[in-house]
């Protein structure tokens, strides 16, 4: 029982660190967690748990401060623990998409909605009448603290300009996925190995599409995953009915 309690505590602390880091965009200390969440454990106990999580490769110690940040494995562990609950959330989307427009405009409208609701760059790879990759919301990249680093920003824009065929093929590979989260180097593109890509696709008789959100690894997954999933379902329903 003691082992189970320890594991549950570690999972709770990891979740709090990830959520806090997503919000604050800075290393998270044990004192911050205790003060912010009124945690029942002492600061020393929380610090010990964070040290254990660091040894397991889920947190990384930022030596210029007393805080820690999630690693790629830490984010993946966190996502795995919350994904089932996120897909249970039925988002009611009050959106208007004019199905009298041509199909590309319908997809562009869906991307505009997805970007506005999520706050991240949205993409869709489409196959059917032709193969296309559409993109919206590049401006949201500038709102992320990670891309204040000019080299990271240049690398990201290099991918969006030069390597979009790689992203397109990647998205086509997940057309049948309810949702998939690729964290860091799982994207398979070195220039954006500090980003995450959340994907949700659908396949119909005439048209297949894979929607995605691109953002920093410090993406707000609690908002991004249900939003992407809900917009995908809305779009899939419209296309099934009207095209």
Written description of the protein model:
- The protein is α+β, with helices and mostly antiparallel strands and 243 residues long.
- The protein has two domains: 2-70, Orthogonal Bundle (Arc Repressor Mutant, subunit A); 87-242, GAF domain (Beta-Lactamase, 2-Layer Sandwich).
- It is built from eight helices and seven strands, in the order αααββααββααβββα.
- The protein has helices at residues 2-24, 30-37, 43-55, 72-88, 103-118, 150-162, 164-172, 221-242; strands spanning 59-61, 68-70, 121-127, 132-136, 180-183, 195-203, 208-216.
- The strands form two sheets. The protein has a five-stranded antiparallel beta sheet with strand order 4-3-7-6-5, with helices on both faces.
- Strand 6 and strand 7 (208-216) form a beta hairpin.
- Helix 1 packs across helix 3, helix 2 (30-37) crosses helix 3 (43-55) and helix 4 crosses helix 8 (221-242).
- The N and C termini lie far apart (56 Å).
- The model has no long low-confidence stretch (mean pLDDT 88).
């Amino acid at each position: 029982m003691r082992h189970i309690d320890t594991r549950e505590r570690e999972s709770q602390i990891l979740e709090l660190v990830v959520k806090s880091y997503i919000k604050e965009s800075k290393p998270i200390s044990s004192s911050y967690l205790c003060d912010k969440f009124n945690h029942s454990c002492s600061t020393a106990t929380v610090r010990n748990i964070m040290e254990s999580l660091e040894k397991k490769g889920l947190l990384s110690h930022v030596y210029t401060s007393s805080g820690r940040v999630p690693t790629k494995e830490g984010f993946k562990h966190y996502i795995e623990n919350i994904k089932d609950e996120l897909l249970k959330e039925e988002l009611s989307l009050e959106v208007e998409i004019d199905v009298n427009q041509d199909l590309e405009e319908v997809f562009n409208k869906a991307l505009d909605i997805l970007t506005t609701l999520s706050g991240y760059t949205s993409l869709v790879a489409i196959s059917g009448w032709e193969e296309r990759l559409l993109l919206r919301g590049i401006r949201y990249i500038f709102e992320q603290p990670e891309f204040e680093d000019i080299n990271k920003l240049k690398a990201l824009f290099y991918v969006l300009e030069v390597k979009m065929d790689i992203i397109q093929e990647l998205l086509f590979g997940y057309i049948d996925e309810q949702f998939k989260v690729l964290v860091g180097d799982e994207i398979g593109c070195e220039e954006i190995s500090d980003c995450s890509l959340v994907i949700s696709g659908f396949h119909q008789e005439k048209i297949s599409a894979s929607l995605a959100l691109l953002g920093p690894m410090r993406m707000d997954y609690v908002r991004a995953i249900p939003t992407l999933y809900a917009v995908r379902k809305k779009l899939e329903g419209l296309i099934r009915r009207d095209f």
